[in-house]
Amino acid sequence: MTLRENALSGGVSAKIPKTSRLLRHADFRLVYEQGRRHFSANFTAFYRTNNAGVSPRIGYTVSRALGGAVDRNRMKRRLREATRACWAGFSPTFAVDVVVNPKKTVLTADFAALAAEMRKALAVVEKGVNSGQANPRPAENVSRNKPRARKEQR
User: Are the C-beta atoms of 42 and 117 separated by less than 8 Å?
Assistant: First the structure.
């Protein structure tokens, strides 16, 4: 079935609603600084409980070091589609913010394996949130808030 036939038959996946997407830079920064990490073969997922919202939210960041705009956009499209495949079954007891950082291998990875990896990552995040391990770390553990050591003058 071609993409056009799929679109005409209504088989195109639904978008993740705007309320379930991370949009603000400050939210991404909080997840990086205070969140937990889950490493996998093709990406790293950062997660943190969110007291402001009622539903889980997800965002994607792709560094310029991973390639040009075409490659970066393809990585995000593949990750969004892999997330769509398993987002409906993701229901933690608390609101959680998830940020996904892909590795270069996302471009060449088999999509079924990528979707299975995303499903496993979301299961780990859900388990961490439900057990209380995804709570934000205290501010004193965040490296940006530590005072810098002054160099001694000679």
Answer: yes
Q: How far apart are CA 138 and CA 109, in angstroms?
A: 36
Average pLDDT over every residue of 79-93: 85
Q: Quick one: tokens of 66?
A: 């991973």
Of 56, 16, 50, 52, the closest CA to residue 31 belongs to 50
Residue type, 19: T
Backbone angles phi, psi at 37, to 5 degrees: -125, 150
Count of C-beta atoms within a 10 Å radius of residue 31? 25
Residues 102, 38: Cα–Cα separation, whole Å: 12
Percent of the chain residues past pLDDT 70, beyond the cut: 78
- Model pTM? 0.76
Q: Residue 107, Cβ neighbours under 10 Å: how many?
A: 15
DSSP state of 40: -
Single-letter amino acid, residue 116:
A
- DSSP class of residue 89 equals T
Between CA 94 and CA 134 the distance in angstroms is 10
